[in-house]
Description:
Low-confidence stretches: none
Largest sheet: 3 strands, antiparallel
Structural class: alpha+beta
Strand content: 15-25%
Mean pLDDT: 76
Helix content: 25-40%
Amino acid sequence: MEIKGRSLRTVLPERTDQRSVSVDLIDEARGQAAQNLDSYITATKVWFNTKLAPHSFAPRDMVLWRALNPGKLQNKWEGPLCQKVASAEPRVEAAHLR
């Protein structure tokens, strides 16, 4: 069996079961779709991350955290919090201000 180009048209050998060929084609199409999705995700991440400015957090910096499961009319951010340890990203060591 040959797949021509990017379509699902095939050239079948003489003695093949039509159903097994179509199942194989579906599996190949799903595999190709998964590969396309993975390449799209990585390309999108690379494109998005080029626009981000690097930032590191120092102790006593004020940070906001995104709430885990905010309700419809709830706040989407928690904070302000105070960073306890210097790091490249906000960590669990942040404490609520009082």
